[in-house]
Specification:
This protein has six helices and twelve strands. By secondary structure, the chain is α/β, with parallel strands linked by helices. The strands form two sheets. It has a seven-stranded mixed beta sheet with strand order 8-7-6-9-10-12-11. The protein has one domain: Rossmann fold (3-Layer(aba) Sandwich), CATH 3.40.50.150.
């Protein structure tokens, strides 16, 4: 076991985070005990960040104390691992459109005090702008046709210059008839107008027809 990148640890082929809330599972994830510490395995079948790590993602830009805007936080599976990394001095603003998902997220955020659920539409950042500050990291998992445009809009509004931005692109949400590789290329071109695209990985069998982009705000 060793810390490989950005507060993420490696156990064989698996990646894990050091739990901020030991003995409090979020999604029935596997855990590993090392002395007083509990490590939570990032399930690549349930977390696109976990899948990206398994497929070769080299960095995340996350760090202890980071401020994060998470678009499409859902019930908090991936966000709980980001919560582990950013720690008690970090903060995650979790935007979610589904009231059902927000209800599922609330118990997680009560245990993890660095998570703030926000019921809002990520397509309209102006509607929640008064509730958040500039952030170090933007993370998006929103399956919409205009997902790149949503990502860019929020980055321009909230991401600090030089900040890191991660997006999971779902090709079939953009055009179900087009070859996913062509979709990834066109979306990368859009992103490149505003970001340095640092790395692109496809998520393989973990998430069919998905690519994960790691970007840096210019």
């Amino acid at each position: 076991m060793k810390c490989v990148i950005d507060g993420i640890y490696r156990f064989g082929k698996d990646f894990a985070t050091l739990s901020l809330a030991p003995n409090k599972k979020v999604y029935d994830e596997k855990t590993i005990r090392k002395g007083k510490d509990e490590y939570r395995i990032i399930d690549p079948k349930k977390s696109k960040l976990g899948a990206a790590l398994r497929m070769g993602l080299k960095e995340t830009g996350l760090f202890e104390g980071a401020k994060v805007l998470y678009l499409g936080i859902a019930s908090g599976t991936t966000a709980s691992h980001i919560s582990d990394i950013t720690g008690e001095h970090g903060l995650i603003y979790g935007v979610e459109f589904s009231s059902r998902s927000i209800r599922d997220l609330l118990p997680v955020s009560r245990v993890r005090k660095n998570m703030i659920p926000i019921l809002a539409d990520a397509r309209m950042p102006q509607t929640f702008a008064s509730r958040i500050e500039k952030v170090n990291v933007l993370y998006q998992d929103v399956a919409q046709k205009d997902q790149s445009e949503i990502f860019i809009r929020n980055a321009k509004a909230f991401l600090k210059k030089g900040g890191t931005a991660m997006i999971a692109i779902k090709a079939r949400s953009i055009d179900v008839t087009e070859n996913p590789k062509k979709i990834y290329a066109q979306e990368k071109q859009k992103l490149s107008q505003y970001f340095e695209v640092v790395q692109q990985v496809t998520l393989g069998h973990f998430e069919k027809d998905h690519a994960f982009f790691l970007c840096r705000m210019r």
